[in-house]
Design a protein that fits this description.
Uridine Diphospho-n-acetylenolpyruvylglucosamine Reductase, domain 3, globular, Alpha-Beta Plaits, 5-stranded antiparallel sheet, 3 domains, alpha+beta, Na+/H+ antiporter like fold, 597 residues
């Protein structure tokens, strides 16, 4: 006689192992990994291997907890620089953009399928937010290195728009339940939104400081810190929700705030949360896949595909364009942000709510949401990398991999112990001498530890242990990085000409027919770019001056622009600038492996 508990544990653990194993296939063929998890749930479900799971309440509860953990980790891993760079455009997208997407999609559904306005708005709200797990995977793990401003905007938006979608969905369910009081309901809706978002932000802010202060002041066993942070994050979510606020927003804000506290346990916390977030994503996608019944999709397939097409091609682009144009985003950047509006587990999770509320359209909405998510992951998820290249948004790499591990030191040490693995082709492997301040404390070669002077010249594969202050780690990265394979001609991204950052702007403007202000002519071209772009200047940032586009090509360690790419934008009719001669002073040159490091 089989014990049901052991059978359930065996099935659950087998699915986890299988999900991890299939990730190897996903990376090899370039498939969106979260699509693989969802497909695995479908494959072992009722229409696949026959595993019967139809408890929508359990799926919703487990999915909600998993979403809290994902949002907290999203906030915890969002850098202050990223938030500062993209806060306003991203928050506009996550509020106004979500509402606009909901309304545009609802209008289309109402007209095409003759559905009442409130149910149409409900369907729009369910699929209105981008999925944080899907977007974070593609941007942080999927190898898509795009312009910093675009990447930051997408990261902050995907982490902060789920609370608005959750509120909209639940509020519209309440309006449907109180049909006939729409006028009073709208006023109530506005006040509830302000209250929930306000309490969510305050609860997350206080919870984040509580987590940070607790981590700094308590001396615990190393393994207890992640458990404590996990408990406090869930407490912030639950407490805020009980007080009538948005617990999901509180979880995200708590992650943002607590990450500003640097403690010796921070590296360990990041590793723990990375594994916990993967587990949350796998469990959530597997459960939602198990809950679906693909044999029921046939009757709703065409409306689902039409709705997905409207969302992807009309509603999302219109909302993104309206939200980002005031912030000076280019047409290519707006097009890319529009396309990266991937839908995922959150939309399916919210589609469970109408079922739990007992709506007649509940099951139909769940199936439509599932079809939309599958379409989004297949069509958008598979095409993001080639689209980024086609739009010229992929930033060419400057250095190859740097394999390093940060280790915790007791107390409040001002230095960090960094472990580098020497890679082939790096400056140190080619015999470049290490500065006195970067002398290794220990070298491990062939499983044998030795002093630096005993090791002699460092060789590929050596593990090098160095005590370093945080401000010099970037310099160490360059010493231990390998050159990367760069296309012989990178003019498609950085422009046809290469100028030095200390070139006088007045001379460049005269040579290329750029219209600049008289006072700007006293600056170098690097100073001009830094002033126009602000403190957060990144490689690949660009500005247009008439028909000339200036692109930041290289930065010094202190953030000064050292090299600038120049591109002549196409004109609709011939112009004298098309016949401009190449300057003698700043000749074009191709980047070499040496200059890339």
């Amino acid at each position: 006689m089989f014990d049901p508990l052991f059978v359930a544990i065996l099935i659950g653990s087998s699915l986890l192992v299988l999900a991890v194993a299939t990730s190897l296939i996903a990376f090899r063929i370039g498939a969106p990994l979260l699509l693989v998890f969802l497909a695995l749930g479908l494959a072992v479900g009722e229409d696949g291997l026959g595993l019967d799971f139809d408890n929508a309440g359990v799926a919703y509860s487990i999915g909600s907890v998993a979403l809290v953990l994902i949002l907290f980790d999203a906030g915890f891993n969002t850098r202050t620089e990223t938030l500062r760079r993209a806060a306003w455009p991203a928050l506009t997208l996550s509020t106004v953009g979500v509402v606009m997407t909901t309304c545009i999609l609802a209008a289309a559904v109402h007209l095409l399928f003759d559905l009442d306005w409130l149910p149409s708005l409900l369907l729009g709200a369910i699929v209105s937010s981008t999925d944080a797990a899907a977007v974070f995977f593609l941007l942080r793990i999927g190898g898509v290195r795009i312009r910093e401003r675009v990447r930051a905007t997408l990261e902050v938006e995907s982490g902060s728009n789920d609370p608005v979608a959750v509120f909209s969905t639940l509020a519209l369910l309440g309006l449907i339940a109180t049909e006939g009081e729409a006028g009073a309901g709208v006023l109530t809706l506005v006040s509830q939104f302000v209250l929930q978002m306000g309490l969510g932000a305050v609860g997350g802010y206080l919870g984040g400081h509580l987590i940070g202060q607790t981590m700094k002041r308590l001396q615990l066993e190393a393994g207890l810190y992640p458990v404590l942070v996990l408990g406090l994050a869930l407490m912030a979510f639950a407490t805020t929700s009980l007080l009538g606020g948005s617990g999901f927003l509180a979880a995200y804000v708590a992650g943002l705030v607590s990450a500003r506290y640097t403690t010796r346990a921070t590296p360990m916390l990041r590793r723990f949360q990375e594994g916990l977030t993967w587990l949350s994503q796998i469990v959530m996608f597997l459960l939602l896949g198990l809950l679906a019944t693909p044999s029921h999709f046939g009757a709703i397939l065409l409306p689902g595909l039409i709705t997905a097409a409207i969302l992807i091609l009309v509603a999302r682009p219109l909302a993104v364009t309206a939200c980002l144009l005031p912030f000076g985003f280019s047409a290519t950047e707006i097009a890319f942000v529009s396309w990266v509006g991937l839908r995922g587990a959150v939309s399916i999770l919210l589609a469970i709510a109408p079922i739990l509320a007992g709506l007649d359209v509940g099951q139909a909405f769940f199936n439509i949401a599932f079809i939309i998510v599958l379409t989004s992951l297949v069509v958008q998820g598979w095409s993001i990398r080639p689209l980024a290249r086609r739009l010229g948004l992929v930033v060419p790499p400057t250095i190859g991999p740097v394999e390093k591990v940060e280790l915790e030191l007791p107390g409040h040490a001002t230095h960090e112990l960094i472990v580098y693995r020497v890679v082939d082709g790096s400056p140190v492997s080619r015999g470049e001498r290490l500065p006195r301040w970067a002398r290794p404390s220990l070298v491990v070669r062939d499983n044998r530890s030795m002093r630096h002077h005993e090791a002699g010249r460092l060789a590929p594969g050596d593990l090098v242990y160095i005590f370093s202050s945080p401000r010099t780690i970037r310099l160490l990265d360059r010493l231990f990085a390998s050159p990367v394979a760069i296309d012989e001609d990178d003019t498609e991204y950085f422009g046809e000409f290469v100028l030095q950052g200390d070139a006088p702007l007045a001379a460049v403007a005269h040579e290329y027919g750029m219209g600049i202000e008289a006072e700007d002519g006293q600056q170098t071209i690097g100073q001009y770019l830094s002033r126009r772009l602000g403190a957060d200047t990144h490689r690949g940032d660009r500005i247009a001056v008439g028909r000339i586009e200036l692109i930041v090509r290289d930065l010094s360690d202190d953030g000064a622009v050292t090299r600038v790419g120049l591109s002549v934008l196409p004109a609709t009719r011939p112009s004298p600038i098309d016949r401009v001669r190449r300057p003698v002073r700043w000749r074009r040159k191709k980047p070499s492996a040496k200059s890339a490091v």
